[in-house]
Amino acid sequence: MQVKEILEIKGAVLFTIAPDKYLAEAVEVMTGQDVGSLICFSGGEMIGVLTFREVLLAIQKYGDKWQEVRIDTVIVRDPCVAQPEMEMDTLRRLMVENHQRYWPVMDGKVLLGVLSFHDVAKAVLEEQSFENKMLKAYIRDWPDEGGAIDVPHKRRSTDQP
To answer: Would the pTM count as exceeding 0.85?
Structure first.
């Protein structure tokens, strides 16, 4: 399965924030929309990603003043990105290796969406479920050597073992 297929399943709703906004605004959007990341744009280009990890680090660093911290001071600049044709297994490996739970999907300079670790896990589950159903159907309909399909029947009490 490719990244673009996961995006098709998830949908392409994007949540962004400007670099001159404050963390209080970001937290309001993130909690209100139930999202774990916001993409930061400036001049029509992605310059970074804000996740709850950066929010927590800012709270730890700035204490009571965290709400007044500008987004551009805490975002992850130039985050790793996925391309639409990237295989899901590659993305999973990169997410783990880079400790990055949210991956912008870019087609050149165009943001197509953001995939979370949850989105990828859900896609894996759906893909495995589909494969399991197909394998079970294949095994159930396995032809005998003559090419005919053996359909099991119920044993009647008069049938001999």
So the answer is: no
